[in-house]
Amino acid sequence: MQFFRKTLDPVIALSAIAVLEIGLFLLIGAWTVGGGETMMTGLAAQLVLGDDLKRLPFWNLVFPPRGDYWKIYISLGMLFGAFVGAVLSKEFYLRMPRRVSEWALITVGGLLMGVGIRLAFICNVSTFFGMTPEMNLGGYLAISGIVAGAWVGSLIYKKMLEG
Amino acid sequence: MSPVTECLIAFVFGSAVGLLVQRSRFCNTAALRDAIMFKSYRNTKALLVAMMILTMAFTGLMSVGVGHPMDFDVGLNTFIGLFLFGIGMVLAGACTVSTWVKTAEGNIGALWALLFTFIGMFLFSLAWSWNYWPPAPASMTGEPNLPALQLGFANAATLQQKVGVPAIVFGLAQTLVLYAIYRAIRRKEREREAPGEEPAAVQELHAIERG
Question: A133 and B95 in contact by Cβ < 8 A?
Answer without folding.
Answer: no
